[in-house]
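[User] At your convenience, examine this fold.
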Amino acid sequence: MPPSMRIKRLEIKGFKSFPDRTALDFGSGVTCVVGPNGAGKSNILEALRWVMGEQRVKTLRSRRMDDVIFNGSETLKPLGLAEVRLVLSNLNKISNPAYNDYDEIMVSRRLYRDGASQYEINNVPCRLSDITDFFLDTGVGKNSYAIIEQGRVEQIVAAKPEERRVLIEEAAGINKYKARKEIALKKLESTSQNLLRLSDILSEVKSQSLALKRQAGKAERYQALLNQIRLMEVALISAKIERWGDKLMVIGTEVNDLKSELEKTEFRLVDRGAQLEKNKLYKLKAESEHQDLLNKKHSVELDLRAVRETVKRSADRLLDVKSRMENIESDILSNIQTRKRATADFDALSQTLEQTRLKLNGYKSELEQALTGHSELMETISSSRKQLNHLRDSLFRSLQDTAVARNKKESLLKRRHEVEGQIARKKTERVNLTAEMESVRQNIASAQKRTDGLRESLSRLDEIRKRLSSAKDDLESSVRASRTELHEWEKKLTAIQTKLKTLEELSDNYDSYDNPVKFLMKKKNESNGKFILEPIGEIIDIPNVYHKALAGALNYRIDMLVTKSVGDGVELTERLRTENAGRATFLPLDPRVVDTRESETFLEGATPILDLISVREGFQDVASFLFKNVFVVQDLSQARYLWEKNGLNVDLVTLDGDLISRYGEVSGGSREIVGEEIFKRRHEINQLEGHRQQILAELNQIRTKSSLEQHELSETRKRLQESSDEFNLLKMEDLKLQGQKENLMNRLSNDEKRLRILEADETRLDREVNHILQELEQSETSIDSMTKRNESIEDDKDKLQSRINVLNQKNSDRQSRIESLKIQSAKLNERVRASERELEAAQEKIGNANEQTRRLNSEKLKGSELIDQLEADIEALNSRETQLMMSHEETAESVESVKSRVSYTGDLCSKLESEVKELNLLVRNNTRRLNELEVESARLEENIRNASEQISDRPHVDVKKLQAELSEINEERLDSLKQKLAAFGPVNLAAISESKAVDERLHFLGNQESDLKKALETLHETISSINQTTRERFMETFERVNLQFLEIFPYLFGGGQGRLELTDNENPLETGVSIMVRPPGKRYQNMDLLSGGEKALTAVALIFSIFLISPSPFCLLDEVDAPLDDANLARFNSMLRKLSDRTQFIVVTHNKKSMEESDALFGVTMEEPGASKVVSVKFLN
């Protein structure tokens, strides 16, 4: 059956040496690409790699990607486009499920001179990743084990075990899981960084929230008092403000609703994203199961087709047998007719023969009378001839015996000479063998001495190797520990730098200050600080233990801005009013200072805060103005005691930030003091910076230490490798000496046996010489006696011959008559014999007919038995076919079931993706709407503030209620309230809304943190599931490949053993794959010591093992058979032919035997220099 998704056609235009459009139609089986060196054979395979998405120019034997475009020749111009099209058969629907509706799939790639490129699948533009995904886990692709280019065999053998595991991963089909895992790990890293950054932001926002809550409380009290003072002025614009307020409330409600909806939507988005990842994993598993079922269905179809072909052959044979039986029946009837005709001819011939015999008897009677006298004479002659013949025989036997005796004598003489020569040679050989044995004994003693020396060297080197290996292990542990420590310090540094960056950004943005301060500091940066110098909080610092005390002493003056002059402060105040940017307080660089500082002797236990703070250069007058009468005490009890006892004109602030002013005002409590976070943040920044410098120094030390350890480890590894190499060389020399010694011992043993045999042979040959001498003496005596007897027989023979001559003359006359009668009788006898022959022929014809009838009947009986056997076989095969069809139907149902599950999961993923897109769109829309509402809210708040400023910042109240309350207000009460109002100092009126916004942001960030933690859990579960699936598939595939390798290696090598081993059985996700081999007649040895042919066969054995458990639709081999000899090549081609039933092979080769085994040939030539041309040849089987 042709392989699934095989290559049907390859079209090349403008790629490398193919300027014209060249089409190659590939069939199933083995296709060879042949041609001279440099003709462009390998360019065909590179075109296949390129169209399947290859991006590595080195793999394409180029320097730049545009080098693949035809660059012209002596007569042809360069082209501006390279294009390759690959048409794949998809009849069995084994490809990507998205293309199961197509029987053919065409993958195209184009590259232009300007660098533009284009990919297409079935003429539809796509991305490179789509091409990669299409070929992913199909057994083919740009990095597949099915593409073995020149040098890849050596790469497989020489590769590190960790690099070699890629082949097993490709066969196991886990690349898609690795891709999913990489995506999940990137998301995990991104989510972890986001969570870390979010934690830092949460910490800062919490601090900001505390400060804003305090400011908001003050602002609320300030607003209540301000409303009481300016109730009368509100009536002018209260209606307008009331409308804006209603609209602001509506916007605020909508903002809250939008934020709530946004949080829910983002939660749904995270949840749906996690569900989508899980469903994608389920889909991958279902697709894998679907692929396995398709393979099973394919196997059942192969078995079913084989059974059907067997049934067809049996049925055809049954028809042939039945046809033969009919012919036999016809032959039997024909033989019966022939026998009848032969019987009739036999009877007629019998009558003719009888008549001829009667006539012959008359001639015989007359002849007998003539012969009677002749017989008597002939008896006399015969008796004489017998005597003569007896004498001749005696003479012949005697002469023969004499010749035998003489031959025996000659043979004995010759044998004597041979034996004496053998004895001489044996003696010479014995002397030489004795000398050789002495030499062998000396060589054995010399080899033993060399062996003892080598053993001592090996022992010494082994000790050195152990020490170096131990040192290497210690250094590797130390290096790993250093790397781990370095990684931990880098993680700490990253965390500190992230937090430091966040804190510095908050500090640079003046995040803890009121909005007017932020506004003016931003303008300062734009105007290069023309008017503003710094906020108060930025020019003063104090030890950590006094942060609260300093914040309490400054109170809300922390937001004061230092200007160069009072005029600058006035100008900036006007600018705030013009820009509607709020209110701020300004302090000139040289304020008017009246020194009223009390003597320290009256404040026992109190410390002037000026003695504790550090002030930036140039701002000492500002610090003196702010803290001229401020003292730090331990607690409120001490502050109260000093204030009540001494009545001093000073402010007393405790370490907890509680304050008793010189006027007796007391402020304090449990909430964080305004401005404290500014000093805390600056202190934390300084601490983090110091910590960062310490970590950097520690990192430098660790890196230096790690570098030294790495250098020492490299040197140790080098020395260990040198020792190991020397050890291996000595070990091999020791093994060689052992072999030589064994050979010498065997040779000595054989020589000793040979010596004993020589001595025995000499003894035997001496006895044989003595025996030959005795026989020669007997032969001489026998020859003399035989000569005398021969002479006597010769005389008697001459006398008897004279008598026989006389009798012969007398018999001549009678012989003439007898001859005449004999002629007549002979003619009749001839007629009788002719008749008898015809009669015998007729009788033989009858016998042949009978024999043929018996043979046909026997053949008929055997045919009947064969028919019964074939009918039984066909019935059994039909039963097997029924079973296979049922299995096929069950498998098909399972395929459809899994396909439905894949489709359902795919639909669910599509639905989830659509929902995620919709949720993303909803989040963007809500965020955009929220920003619009916040802008509108800010605009309305600005309008309200502007309106309030027009009536001296008076609050909005009900006009009717205002009119009812006017009678209760008097001038004295109003002055008192104004004094209270003036005591408030700077107030951040926007703190109320800002505090609410920050609280909402805090809630939103908290939800985000929870969602990110859930996403982290989901990603960890996904990665764990992927690791489990990858681990199981890798181990299962490794075991199956190893079993195949155990069988294929001895087949390809004609013996020997080979196996695969994992370098780390405890860690299947990272372990390497080692190859252990023992060619026939050798021990297990290092791969580097194998010959080129052995390395090639080992790599081929591994590749074929993978093919047997995970067959690729097609395989590309570029001169893999080059290093193989004829015997190995025959086994290689046999295995290739065996695998060609399930895989389509395209082989680039120069070997004639490989060409003979192919089903088709493509010849690549260059009719014109620089331009390749293809000629195809197909073989008829």
User: Anything to note?
Assistant: Residues 650 and 1034 are 81 Å apart (CA to CA). Residues 596-602 have pLDDT under 50 and may be disordered. The chain is about 70% helix and 10% strand. The longest strand covers residues 81-89.
